[in-house]
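From the pipeline queue, job 12 of 40. The input is one protein chain; the requested action is below.

Action: predict structure.
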Amino acid sequence: MTRKNWAIEILPRALWVVQGVCLYLGQHFTNCPPISASNAGILFLGTLLTAGGFIFWMYVGYYMRHAFFDKELVTNGPFKYVRHPMYVAIYIMLSGVGLLFFSLAWFVIMAIFIPIWYIDSRIEERQMIGLHGRDYLDYKKRTGMFVPRVRW
């Protein structure tokens, strides 16, 4: 059994707190424009991305229960296409939140956090190799990290 890594256990939770505080402060010190016909499309897209990301996040969670409780390598459902669908779902949802709040600062914060989440994903993958060995390496070859691998 592989020892748990602090970056996987603590860092994501800490980053969510920091991102939430940044969103709050960004909204507190800036004014959101009122809803009008000119920004209704942005609000609609923001709502669609937030709701769609949340639904996708729940869908991923349904498949992740096997990884948590049975300690098995999950390669079906959304994991059939990408190795980190939870991060994909969260970033879709967070993009929608940024649009809903008309917050350019939110997207800057997200851009800053992308490399941190990438590093966290790489650490997670090393842990998965330790847990599942060759099975995970084979899975890694046939699926993309955050986007589906294109097969010609």
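Job complete. The CA atoms of residues 20 and 106 lie 10 Å apart.
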